[in-house]
Amino acid sequence: MNQNIFENEFTDGIHEECGVFGIYDLDGGEVASSIYYGLFALQHRGQESCGIAVSDTKGPKGKVLAYKDMGLVNEVFTPETLDKLNGNIGIGHVRYSTAGSSSRENAQPLVLNYVKGTLGIAHNGNLINAIELRKELEYTGAIFQTTIDSEVIAYHIARERLNCGAVEQAVARAMDKIKGAYSLIVMSPRKLIGARDPYGFKPLCVGKRDNAYVLASETCALDAVGAEFIRDVLPGEIVTINSDGIVSDTSRCNQKISRCIFEYIYFARPDSTFDGVSVYNSRIMAGRLLAKLHPVEADLVVGVPESGNDAALGYSLETDIPYGKAFVKNNYVGRTFIKPKQNQRETSVRIKLNVLKEVVKDKRIIMIDDSIVRGTTSARIVGMLKAAGAKEVHVRISSPPFKYPCYFGTDIPSGDQLIATGHTIEEIRNMIGADSLGYLEVETLPELIDEGMTFCDGCFTGNYPMEPPEDDIRGEYER
Amino acid sequence: MNQNIFENEFTDGIHEECGVFGIYDLDGGEVASSIYYGLFALQHRGQESCGIAVSDTKGPKGKVLAYKDMGLVNEVFTPETLDKLNGNIGIGHVRYSTAGSSSRENAQPLVLNYVKGTLGIAHNGNLINAIELRKELEYTGAIFQTTIDSEVIAYHIARERLNCGAVEQAVARAMDKIKGAYSLIVMSPRKLIGARDPYGFKPLCVGKRDNAYVLASETCALDAVGAEFIRDVLPGEIVTINSDGIVSDTSRCNQKISRCIFEYIYFARPDSTFDGVSVYNSRIMAGRLLAKLHPVEADLVVGVPESGNDAALGYSLETDIPYGKAFVKNNYVGRTFIKPKQNQRETSVRIKLNVLKEVVKDKRIIMIDDSIVRGTTSARIVGMLKAAGAKEVHVRISSPPFKYPCYFGTDIPSGDQLIATGHTIEEIRNMIGADSLGYLEVETLPELIDEGMTFCDGCFTGNYPMEPPEDDIRGEYER
Amino acid sequence: MNQNIFENEFTDGIHEECGVFGIYDLDGGEVASSIYYGLFALQHRGQESCGIAVSDTKGPKGKVLAYKDMGLVNEVFTPETLDKLNGNIGIGHVRYSTAGSSSRENAQPLVLNYVKGTLGIAHNGNLINAIELRKELEYTGAIFQTTIDSEVIAYHIARERLNCGAVEQAVARAMDKIKGAYSLIVMSPRKLIGARDPYGFKPLCVGKRDNAYVLASETCALDAVGAEFIRDVLPGEIVTINSDGIVSDTSRCNQKISRCIFEYIYFARPDSTFDGVSVYNSRIMAGRLLAKLHPVEADLVVGVPESGNDAALGYSLETDIPYGKAFVKNNYVGRTFIKPKQNQRETSVRIKLNVLKEVVKDKRIIMIDDSIVRGTTSARIVGMLKAAGAKEVHVRISSPPFKYPCYFGTDIPSGDQLIATGHTIEEIRNMIGADSLGYLEVETLPELIDEGMTFCDGCFTGNYPMEPPEDDIRGEYER
Amino acid sequence: MNQNIFENEFTDGIHEECGVFGIYDLDGGEVASSIYYGLFALQHRGQESCGIAVSDTKGPKGKVLAYKDMGLVNEVFTPETLDKLNGNIGIGHVRYSTAGSSSRENAQPLVLNYVKGTLGIAHNGNLINAIELRKELEYTGAIFQTTIDSEVIAYHIARERLNCGAVEQAVARAMDKIKGAYSLIVMSPRKLIGARDPYGFKPLCVGKRDNAYVLASETCALDAVGAEFIRDVLPGEIVTINSDGIVSDTSRCNQKISRCIFEYIYFARPDSTFDGVSVYNSRIMAGRLLAKLHPVEADLVVGVPESGNDAALGYSLETDIPYGKAFVKNNYVGRTFIKPKQNQRETSVRIKLNVLKEVVKDKRIIMIDDSIVRGTTSARIVGMLKAAGAKEVHVRISSPPFKYPCYFGTDIPSGDQLIATGHTIEEIRNMIGADSLGYLEVETLPELIDEGMTFCDGCFTGNYPMEPPEDDIRGEYER
């Protein structure tokens, strides 16, 4: 719990997927507990560490109270801690990172002091020129105490601020330097600022509750705190909330938008809506598309819980093959679950997932999952269905095959760890023991969202909206 | 975490709902980790405390290693703790009790020393003559250090053992004294014993993995540890596992069976099977029955997650009204969740459950839940659907109305706290704001299970299979 | 921290040294925090576990609130926990036991329910017929959940209570059955009872603060809570405090008294007074006696901190050889100190104790310690003095040589682990590397206390005030 | 435990008193456990937080493993944590800070990445131009994540390093910028560097164990790890340990030395030696001086434990008035001790300290303490002696009266909180209830140390070795 040993502290933890939340109550009401509930709603975006930082816009300038640690929102915050976090403006963060790179030092929000007082920063995404910028900064004498991009962004804001009249201008100029995916919430003593990269990789939205403005990664967090959805922050836009209300700077909204399509397919909560498209509807549509692309005669459509269920429902709606439940998921298997050792008879998959034998026995099953990464889990699940007596198992995947790494904030590994990179679909089918296997096709992805909406499909096609670094920057520091 | 303050230590905590697990590896293999995974699979039966006790049948007689504490299996056990629990025979327990009565002292298994060495006891159920027996024992000088029935049972086994040649005979004679619901696992230095009360209120089954025998509350725990289901322990039966294998004593199997029907409707995991009936199928059938009893024109059938989903699917299958998802549940809201205060804008229900607005908007919704206790939660959920734009909300409950308390191991409160006791269905409909409301009828309950199977419906009818105590014993000690 | 794994749960932990505290505020004031501070003052008597149990004499009969756990008073209790322990009557306990036998189950006070309601018991001492009594009880069907003598005592009180009009009479009759050393505090719903075994092995005293009566192992605990010392409980006496005040039963005060002389020499805090004799004065006198028995020419008298310092001062006062400080003790080395491994350059002794080189260099040192058990620590300390340049090191021990085990509540091991059992003083001197070595003589022990006071010197002479069990009962259950 | 809420994060915590430790094993041996034991020996210098950072000089450059947290060395480190900290070069830190400013963020060592890889910094002392330097740095775009001086120092090293061929040169140039008191240990991937400010306020010494070099605040830490004392780092000196051995840069050793005299009087452990003078001898001498300056007829000299004991012994040696023990200190009152509330009968002083009544009764007592800050504690202790029957209490203080704040690393508050600032000695005597009161005189302080040694007596005289900041910088950020 208290682990802050960091191996290669300055090397990894770059490819995280996170959630951000911010709130400014213009009437002066306390905001810490709303941040707490907002982070709860965003917990699926990061389960390793979390944090809250608050300030009182009527209090002494620059007094920031913060608390962050490794663990779930549930575990990190107690009523006593929340009660101490007094303030009417605040930001929160939940974080995920790949194993080994997680450390308490890297927990967000980042809180710092600079020439104009204090600054809090919460960031979701991944900069592709972070290493480059760090080196540049180091060559002017900068020191780094974390490995998170937020520290690089903070330095740029701090430096630009020397020549800017307002912090939001410094944020804007910093945005001209940083490249990649970022949804950013910045708290200065008197302002709450939200910014989204011009490509719009990662979501960010604005809500309102009485006289309080809310910024959040997903709309489900607005619902959780009783705020009304106002609009998405535009790709490239900077919104600044101060005591007078909300101001927008859209001068950087000039890029062809490259939404992360995987937010719709997998990351986001189904009750969220991004850029006008319901995540749930996207997934239903993915199931319908799969049904059209890869029809098969069967008795039952089932999803691999939880993420496969919605597409399974879509497949069923499209085909009239009954939707059913084949798996029971153990919801108690949490972070501290002790994994079975090699020589034990139990397996992690079986402990997490059990098959409803009487449902699948003697049935032809269509099993929907959102993706296949290494293939081992899929093989085990197919095996469990067969062992339970399923006559046929037809696997359908509600995304195209992963073939390329993601450099924009998603933990998709490099190609050699992706089953789809080196194998044909038939080979994969064989490896996972399915009777048939069908993926969604890249060409059909536009149907998941609204007409005219553009997105990034780099992990499927290798065509990235901006040049990825020559080397896989995600391993740079590790050499 | 470390709380063992006990208010009215000797008064409450009597009506718990628990899960039990036991294993004896005749080949001498270590069993602690299998108990750990078995308890994981039974975690839904009790989330307050848990424990494991093991012994080595080849080691010095009576050496028992045990560990128990407040918390989830996940939280209580670490790899280091598990590694220390060496033994090839062992039992485990997960416990739930009503608020206030939980205390570390009451965690199970109970481990004790008596005239013949050591004994470990894990118990699920509720004795109706526990108070009476405690008083009798006290009048012979007994002392009690917990408020759990296991201690009463232990005393009886210890006393009977003075005149019995074998511990299983002492268990048998103890069973002649205790009345009520119990599924019991007893570990002596060289034997593992399972017993089920003659009414068969609570489930208990036997499984096998290679040369290891397993006893568990539910079959899903057998699946979790890779054991094969052999059979249910019969109501009234005592099974004894020793180095020679398994022996059965069915001399007490003479009672009309009164299975707890609510295990099928709500308690058990859908992937479990009791007395030959799949829990999942029961719930699908409950939905189908509801559809026949209370049909209504609508656009969508939805379940209140998780427990309402299966019956909703059954309703949909029966009616061809599409099954859908109206709610997203936040799986991260755990034991230590900080509840919103009265004056906060957030509510517990909204934080745990969010409505998929685009799904329910302008739709006529059939909403299935497993039960209504006080009615407040139902009212909030119906309200959320309406606020999201649902045109109509028709509530269907996959059980008959609760009108009477349960004395047999279920936390159903006394009548004055049950909305159905003092109100007509129309009144309840009005109170929860539904457009229509339909319950399952007591007469149709037999259809949930197999022909000829008998069960207890006391909580619906007040007709208990045995005379309940004159006073509500569950409050006896509190006065 | 949460360790309650118990190895040989029913076997060991019999030879503990503990501290007890009780308070009854007749005016109804809260007592939990006074118990907390009282236990603090008694912490030196037991550092493994501690606990507090309270009751409200005006509240519902038998409502007991308790909290206990492994750890120091400091670690176990938080302000929140103390605040919940509401009551005007209560008892507390600190416990020590030999390694391996410590477990959360064995923490005291023992709280239980019996025929007349609730009972809390805190016990310091060791019964020599505990095994025998346990067996007897087991043969009538008793079950044991701990390995502490309190449970045996509790059973006897409970059984006797069936035929007694008052709990103090039951305590009295139980005293007729139990044999050995015990200072006992019992809390019933309306009474606080203190009892001391007829031999008076272990101390127990009565104090008063306004209208509150206090019972404690040592007078230093009275000082800590601002209570005035009234008197010692007499060996064999039972004092009962109820709403009318204090009542005494001295009908069992008929034994030749056998105070544990080691309480004066080592166990007790120097600011405590037992049976009229100041512990500090005893130790000064021990030093003076040593000076007379074993004079030697030297430059400096030093004590091994902390316990050797007082006798060193006595030696200096008697001889006019200057008293000095040769060692600095590291007060931060606590329970969780990580011991150096075999292959490390550091040693536990050196980390705990450092020598003041400039003080001892070229000096002839008289080094006073309270005892030598195995001799290894003494050898290391003498070695450190020599390495720091001491010309001569004359070791003086303020007690006679340990040659026999203690059966009465002190953790003195059996003879084969005692250096003095198999070796002459000259051999020991040689083994620890001292230039000379002198012990106190058994014959002179009476001078440590007042004329006519009698005591137990069994650990030095093997002459026990009552027949010890044939076998070393302390290992009985371990075979 | 997990508290990292920071109030005025960028405002306070500047005036800490700390301990530092560093070790480089040229033979490649593991050093983490030696750092652990070294920090143990320095624990008295800081009890709020501690940390260890290690690196392997043969491993990949810049791989640093670190662990730090709030708490004692005992509490923060477990065997598992220590085992993970692999490396043959490392630094450690213990930290104290005034209440309110403590936070996990401020725990040391500071570990960071900069242009040349990684750097670890541990610092004891206080810069008087830290605020100024922070502002300067901020005006070039620097950001600060802590409020500790180490971060300021780190920035300067990082910037200077851009133009230096070696890290020790960068440290040297940084020393030309920073002003105030500092003993510094810096770890680069291949070097361990120790530096002491030219005034020599704070101690730092070098030791050796086989082929491992050790740096430590006090010699007692060398003893703890079995290292031999080599020499003190000179005021202004930089020592650099690399694979070839140790190199010294004395080019900044040009200042009149201003040792903190309070290290001798109070801070340091008596078994340490600074700049050739034994701390213990200093204190004995302080007692002797007091005896000469303020003689009085009396029966007993006693010290207020622990820090007054040595001077009491000196007073006794000088006067032949017997040395005695009047107080017993409760060693278990630790960090988490629950303080008595206002309305409770217990007081913190009485719980921590008890009087040996039989020792002081009817006696004329000379009571030695090291200092009086606010006077309230002294008043309580004198009161306790009188209540125990002391006829007279003559208080002697082994330092001159505090009248001025300290700006150089000591937590001496500003004048308005110091009893000696606004009152005459006679007034103070009256306020604490003593029969007479005598302080050490500033003029006699040179006698505590060796002839010719110079020191800082600013807290007594207001004459600081360098101009203190105009405003009390220690409160600067708080306004």
Task: Please describe what this structure looks like.
Chains A, B, C, D: It catalyses: 5-phospho-beta-D-ribosylamine + L-glutamate + diphosphate = 5-phospho-alpha-D-ribose 1-diphosphate + L-glutamine + H2O. Chain A is of the alpha+beta class and 479 residues long. Chain A is built from 16 helices and 23 strands. The first copy, chain A, folds into two domains: 239 residues, Glutamine Phosphoribosylpyrophosphate, subunit 1, domain 1 (4-Layer Sandwich); 181 residues, Rossmann fold (3-Layer(aba) Sandwich). In chain A, the strands form six sheets. Chain A has a seven-stranded antiparallel beta sheet with strand order 3-2-4-1-10-9-11. A six-stranded antiparallel beta sheet of chain A has the order 5-6-7-8-12-13, with helices on one face. In chain A, strands 17-20-21-22 form a four-stranded parallel beta sheet, sandwiched between helices. In chain A, strand 20, helix 13 and strand 21 form a beta-alpha-beta unit. The longest helix of chain A has 15 residues. The N terminus and C terminus of chain A are likely disordered.
List keywords for this structure.
homotetramer, 479 residues, alpha+beta, Glutamine Phosphoribosylpyrophosphate, subunit 1, domain 1, Rossmann fold, 2 domains, seven-stranded antiparallel sheet, globular, 4 iron, 4 sulfur cluster binding (chains A, B, C, D), purine biosynthesis (chains A, B, C, D), magnesium ion binding (chains A, B, C, D), glutamine amidotransferase (chains A, B, C, D), iron-sulfur (chains A, B, C, D)
